[in-house]
Task: structure prediction
Amino acid sequence: MTKSTKKVERVQTGVRIEKRVLKVLKSIAARNEMGLGDLIEGVVLHSFEGKPPFDAETMDFISQMRTAYNLELTAEDSHLLSEEE
Result:
């Protein structure tokens, strides 16, 4: 069964995001030969349905990138982040 393409309207937006999180996201997008916006859309749509967005192989890659970029933040930190002065 082939799924049909869905037409959407995309908008340009300025989003502030933690530097190391962005580096990991860009690495995942590059590995999957997709744009950063497409990756973020996919992660969000999976999250809206309570589904994990990444398979085990991608999670291993994410772990490697988190180490490479010294990203020690976790989901528990998500509501505790503040800007450096």
